[in-house]
Amino acid sequence: MSRGGSSQDRMNWARSLRFSAREIVEPTSFGEAAGVIASASRVHALGTRHSFSDVADTSGVLVSLRQVPTDLVIDGLAGTAVMSAAVPYGRVAPRLDEAGSALHNAGSLPHISVGGAVATGTHGSGTALGSLSTAVRALEILGPDGSLRTIERGSEGFLGAVLHLGLLGVVTRVTLDIQPRYSMRQDAYGPMPWRTYLENLDQVHRAGYSVSAFTTFDGAVSEVLVKSRIPEYEDDIDVEDDLFGSPRLPGGADSESVTARDGSVGPWWDRLPHFPIASTPSVGSELQSEHFVPLRHATAALEAVRAHSASLQPLLHVCELRTMAGDELWLSPTQGEDVLCVAFTWKKLAAPVLELLSVIERSLSPFEARPHWGKLTSLGRDEFNELYARLPSFRRLVSEADADRKFVSPFSERLLDI
What is the pLDDT of residues 301-332, one digit of tens each? Predict the structure, then answer.
């Protein structure tokens, strides 16, 4: 078991946040992790450090399980796969594919850990597809005394426990729903006039299994990525040469750092993410915020953001627009209804970005916009209380699991009163 952590380990992926923990510990087994948890007064799980907020920090000990074996167990008949919570999607997905299985969705980055993505409500895209958290069938969690318990779908409190922000304990293993393996193709269309996009927003995002649109709010959507699922027993599908008048781009993006966008067919795990597992996209060069708006408010919310286009231009790399299905998880940004996610990739200019972010979030406030738990936000405790009706129930769930508040984070104390 390693202790301490390098200076790089004490920073998040973007090098924009330094963890305040007094120690970072990397056990090589769940037994070692249990011992660390039992002996610590404050402890929190640490994933692949892709959060821009301090949701995964603590004043005590951070526990990373990245040295614990993946221990993947696939049960095709039951439709489940069990794995270490610390394994990145990009490492486990090809192994699922080799076994004839697949996940329903994937995030933009395959480098994020399964446990961290689930705990913070990370997502892919697709109006009919739930977030990555919705695939959870069961969680194995080390509690404050180091003992292990399992929370399964259908059990009391399950809907509150899945998206848990690390406040119920250290998740060791995750059981996910799987389905038969499938192939996909990815086609790029663009540019699309802003008005065309707004007038056809719902249809644009239903043009494929998973669809992402990119803009800088300069009067156009520069590119729409349409990820199409290939029907079973077919080699390919016919696609349209244009999307609401915007032409299909023959070669797509010309870069090895993004997944193939040329209409070629490949495995699901190599087409659903935007970036291949072998690449390391933009480490340290960006800040991120994401805001989930009910789909019924999508057009008005985007117009409210575009009203600040002059201020956005100098600070924004790009904004990605995605849709996803609503769910019943208590702390899910998609809880209750289908949403549009407005995901900003900012230039690494912290002070002006945070100042503008406050303005943007005030503009989105009338549209019930919820921020991603692992991204930047200017919202406070009162706003979170208004946005999440099940927060009181979640607080009770945390109190029952962790009466001595061993797993609290600066984030949870500041914004959730936990």
Answer: 999 999 999 999 999 999 999 999 999 999 99
